[in-house]
Design goal:
Blueprint lengths: L6 H9 L5 H12 L3 H8 L3 H9 L6 H21 L1
Helix pairs in contact: 2-4, 2-5, 3-4
Length: 83
């Protein structure tokens, strides 16, 4: 379990539907220990909104989903460059 995330959040994310962009974002952030506050700041939303995405309680609006996917692609490319 990532140090910055509660066991409850990690479990809720694990149980959530991976088809959701927000759930996939949560899995990336949990795995890489990226703070929710960073995601909230990058996307201009509240931390509570990000937590709801991570657990699958809500889904990002379509315009935010595009930005999330772009951000996740950039993170993936950065990780590959470091490897």
């Amino acid at each position: 379990m990532a140090v910055g995330y509660s066991r409850n959040l990690v479990e809720a994310n694990r149980r959530a539907n991976a088809a959701s962009c927000g759930v996939r974002l949560g899995r990336l952030c949990i795995r890489a220990d990226i703070p929710v506050s960073k995601i909230a700041g990058v996307l201009g939303v509240s931390r509570a909104t990000v937590y709801h995405w991570f657990t699958g309680d809500t889904t990002p609006a379509p315009e935010l989903e595009i930005r999330i996917l772009e951000w996740m692609d950039a993170q993936d490319a950065s990780a590959k460059a470091r490897a």
